Amino acid sequence: MTKLLLRALAGETLPTPPIWMMRQAGRYLPEYRATRAQAGDFLSLCYNPDLAAEVTLQPIRRFGFDAAILFADILLVPQALGADLWFVTGEGPRLSAITSASDLGRLKPADAIHHRLAPVYETLRILTRELPRETALIGFAGAPWTVATYMIAGRGTPDQAPAHALKERDRATFTALIDRITDATIHYLSAQIEAGAEVVKLFDSWAGSLKGADFDDFAVAPARRIIATLKERHPGIPVIAFPREAGERYVGFARATGADCVALDNSVDADWAARHVQIDGCVQGNMDPRHMVTGGPALVAEAQRITRALRGGPHVFNLGHGITPDAHPDNVAAMIEAVRSA
Ligand code: CP3
Questions:
Q1: Mind giving me the DSSP string for 67-104?
Q2: Pairing state of beta strands 92-95 and 85-88?
Q3: What CA dihedral angle connects 303, 309, 313 and 318, to 10 degrees?
Q4: So what's the pLDDT on residue 90?
Q5: Cβ 22 under 6 angstroms from ligand 1
Q6: Is 224 a catalytic residue?
Q7: pLDDT per residue over 108-130, tens digit each?
Q8: What residue ranges of the chain have pLDDT lower than 50?
């Protein structure tokens, strides 16, 4: 029998949606914290195939999600392109910043990433052997704009100002960087599919800060090129696109990019999405991750409201963004129960 996630992504309307959760392997789980301590730090965990596969499997064992997402990070691609990368505890990622043509010139070619990323492909191969037969395996990468915002600023930024500034000041360097990341992402996701990923997801966490023609040029166009090339090389591979905070630009995003499913953040209303986004195919989302902290009757009511609002078409139940470290695992179990009994 075909896996539930693959059926929804193929456009099937199901009585109960498949369920998984962004950042389902993470610090809210004591078993994750233990394995991360064993690895030493976050990046060592990402590059240790046995331990990365172990943390990918932990939420599947505990909750029986319908999909597992590869444990890795979107910033491994900049690192494989030659940027320095480290994580500052309590603050987030730091990278050597790309702010000029000469910085860009020091990056490696897009097809030189595989040596560094080989452990990630090995994690996927382990998972294809160890996952339960009904659980789908999702690979992922950051979308070019979101990855570029970190590479240009050298860190996470609230408003992506350094990336917008480079886009205005030195368009040629900015577009060359977007093109390099786009090519690298195609190589990376192709290799993930060859290693066993059955679905791939593109995370464009900062898509919402692109407006007008910039949204078309730097959120839509790179996603369209990545998806078209992947589907040429791997016919039938389903793709989920997550243009977070895209607002009105969620409308038509699947058609414009060729994505099989768009992931909704928690700022859009599920009823609105049913009418304007789900008409084009599968949608994923869009529960507010704060409910995983607060729990109670409000969690149950919201999980059921979303499930019912999107029941008329293909839907993958998920959060609108990643679960946070202060979430309680019991609330995750309650959410799953609420969705399956809606
Ligand atoms: O969803 C999953 O379970 C798969 C693994 C995954 C991680 N990061 C693990 C991770 C995925 C898909 C990501 C994507 C990612 N990484 C995004 C896009 C999605 C989003 O959240 O908007 C972004 C922007 C990043 C970059 C990144 N990685 C940041 C900004 C941070 C620090 C913030 C934080 O939550 O600590 C990370 C670290 C990170 N990536 C952690 C995990 C589990 C926490 C690391 C730890 O254990 O300390």
A1: EEE-S--TTHHHHHTT--EEEETTTEEEE----SHHHH
A2: antiparallel
A3: -30
A4: 87
A5: yes
A6: no
A7: 999 999 999 999 999 999 999 99
A8: none
CA gap 298, 281 in Å, rounded: 28
CA dihedral (257, 262, 265, 269) positive or negative: positive
**Going by CA atoms, what residue is nearest to atom 7 of ligand 1?**
73
| Cβ–Cβ under 8 Å, residues 55 and 130 | no
Domain edges within the chain: 4-340
Candidate list 28, 32, 150, 188, residue with the active-site label: 150
- The per-residue pLDDT for 279 is 96
Q: How far apart are CA 212 and CA 295, in angstroms?
A: 38
Question: Ligand 1: which residue has its CA nearest to atom 2?
Answer: 23
H or E segment at 287?
strand 282-287
Classified as helix, coil or strand, 107 is coil
| Per-residue pLDDT, 229 | 98
Question: 70 near 120, Cβ under 8 Å?
Answer: yes
CB–CB of 198/137 below 8 Å?
Answer: yes
What is the amino acid identity at position 291?
H
**Euclidean distance between CA atoms 145 and 292, whole angstroms:** 29
The pLDDT tens digits for 65-92 are: 999 999 999 999 999 999 999 999 889 9
**Cβ–ligand 1 contact at 140 (below 6 Å):** yes
The maximal CA–CA distance of the chain, rounded, in angstroms, is 57
Question: Phi and psi dihedrals of 59, rounded to 5?
Answer: -70, -20
pTM of the model: 0.98
CATH architecture, domain defined by 4-340: Alpha-Beta Barrel (3.20)
Element (H, E) at 86: strand 85-88
| C-alpha–C-alpha distance, residues 2 and 275, integer Å | 28
